[in-house]
Amino acid sequence: MTSSAPSHPVRRPAGTGATLTEARRVVVKIGSALVVDRSGVASARLASIGADIAGLRGRGVEVIIVSSGAVALGRGRLALTRRAGLDQKQAAAAVGQPWLMQAWEAALSPHGLIPAQVLLTREDTERRRRWLNARATMEALLKLGAVPVVNENDTVATEEIRYGDNDRLAARTAQLARADLLILLSDVDGLYESDPKDDPDARHIPLVEDLGPRVLAMAGGANAGAGVGTGGMRTKLLAADIARSAGCATVIASGSGLHPLAAIESGARATLITAPSSPLAAYKAWIAGSVEPAGSLTIDEGALAALASGGSLLPSGIRGVSGGFDKGDSILLMTAAGVRAGVGLAAYSAREMSLISGRKTGEVAALLGYQGPRAAVHRDDLVLQSGR
Questions:
Q1: In whole angstroms, what is the distance from residue 145 CA to residue 148 CA?
Q2: pLDDT confidence of residue 277
Q3: pLDDT value at residue 160
Q4: Quick one: pLDDT at residue 292?
Q5: Per-residue confidence at 159, pLDDT binned at 50, 70, 90?
Q6: Confidence band of 387 (pLDDT split at 50, 70, 90)
Q7: How large is the average pLDDT for residues 141-166?
Q8: Is the dihedral of CA 215, 220, 221, 223 positive or negative?
Q9: Which pLDDT belongs to residue 318?
C-alpha cells in the first residue's frame, strides 16, 4: 500500500525536503551512472554534490557518501568490457578506486572538507566484531569532521562475500552508522506504478509507508532502470527495507542534474519511504529481542543506579563475569541478587572484563596493554529490562 494507515506510528514529515532538513546524519548513495561519463569522472556533477554536502555540513548535518564508480572507471582505463570476469573486475577496481577518491577530493576540498576512504565487504557489516570496529571507525571520522566515502572492497571481495550492489551497501552503511536518512541518487526521480520509459502516463509515487509485495511489484526486474551500474529500482526498494528496519527513512531521487541534494530540499520530485521508528529505538529493539546473550556481568547497586539515570556501565561497577563472550557479543546484566537488569553489547571480551572488573577507568590501559573504550557496556548499546 502507498497511502493507507500503517500498522505502526511513523514519523510523518511534510515531504522529502523536510526529511532532509530535519535529518542529523545522512547517507548519500551515488550510482556509477552519476559518477562516470564519457570523459571519465563527471566532475561538474560531483562538484555540485560537494557544494550541497558543504551546505548540509554547515547546518550541522553529518554526511556519509557511498560512491559507486571504481570498477567503471578502472574498466574504462584498462579497456575492459562489462563481461569481464571477477579477476578482471577486481583489477579494474584496483585501478579505479584511487581515481574515484581523487574525484571526491576535488569535489570536497574546495569547501574545506576532507574525504576519508572506507572500503567494506559484506562481512564487515554482518560479523558482529567487525561491525563494531567499522562503526567505531565511522564514528571517529565523523567526530573529526571528515566525510567518509564508502565503497565495496571490490579488489578482494569474492562472489560469496559481495553485497552485489551499492544500494544494499548503502543501506547497511546507514544501519551501521545509525543514520536518520538514506538518499539513493540515480537516473530516476523515484518510484512509479509502471516503468515511465515504457509508459509516459505512469503515475509517480511520492510516499511509501509499507514495502509490501504490491510496491515491490512496481519496481519490475532487478535491473529495471539500470545503466552503467548494477542496481535498479527493485534493489533500491530492497535497500530501503533494510534501512527501514533500522529506523532510517529513504529518499529515492534523481541525481542527473546539478545540485541534486539542494533540489531535494527545495521539493524536487522524489519518493520518500518512511521508517516506523528512530534509528536508536530500532537498534535497541534489536539488542533487546533478536540477539542471544553469550554471557553475563554481575553489577553492583551503584552501577545499577547509574544505568537507571542513563549512564554507561563502567568497569568499576562490575562484580562478576560469566561466559566465554567476545567483544561485541550480547550479554546480560545481572544484580547481585540474580535479577536480570538488562542486556547490552560487550565492549570487551570475557577475559578482558575479568581483568578490569571493579577497577577504575584510568587503570584499564595498564591492565590490558592498550587504551580501550571507557565503558564496559556503552549506554547506546544496552537496554534496561529490570525484573525480567
A1: 9
A2: 82
A3: 42
A4: 73
A5: low
A6: low
A7: 78
A8: negative
A9: 97
CA separation, residue 300 to residues 165, 333, 335, 357, 358 (Å)? 47, 10, 6, 11, 10
What is the pTM assigned to this prediction? 0.80
Cα–Cα distance, 47 to 29 (Å, whole number): 15
Cell of 130: 567487525
One-letter amino acid of 126 = E
Query: 149: Cβ–Cβ under 8 A, 6 or more apart, which residues?
Result: 65, 67, 100, 101, 104, 115, 116, 117, 118
pLDDT above 50 for 31: yes
Cα dist from 108 to 52, 144, 162, 211, whole Å = 10, 15, 28, 35
Range with the largest mean pLDDT of 11-20, 126-135, 357-366: 357-366
**Residue 374, all three cell numbers:** 571507557
pLDDT per residue as tens digits for the range 96-150: 999 999 999 999 999 999 999 999 888 777 677 788 889 889 999 999 999 999 9
Cβ count within 10 A of residue 228: 18
Residue 83, judged by CB atoms within 10 A of its CB (0-12, 13-18, 19+), counts as: exposed
Q: What secondary structure, in 3-state letters, does the chain show?
A: CCCCCCCCCCCCCCCHHHHHHHCCEEEEEECHHHHEECCEECHHHHHHHHHHHHHHHHCCCEEEEEECCHHHHHHHHHCCCCCCCHHHHHHHHHHHHHHHHHHHHHHHHHHCCCEEEEEECHHHHHCHHHHHHHHHHHHHHHHCCCEEEEEECCCCCCHHHCCCCHHHHHHHHHHHHCCCEEEEEECCCCEECCCCCCCCCCCEECEECCCCHHHHHHCCCCCCCCCCCCCCHHHHHHHHHHHHHCCCEEEEEECCCCCHHHHHHCCCCEEEECCCCCHHHHHHHHHHHCCCCCEEEEECHHHHHHHHCCCCECHHHEEEEEECCCCCCEEEEEECCCCEEEEEECCCCHHHHHHHCCCCHHHHHHHHCCCCCCCCECHHHEEECCCC
Provide the β-strand partners of residue 313. 377
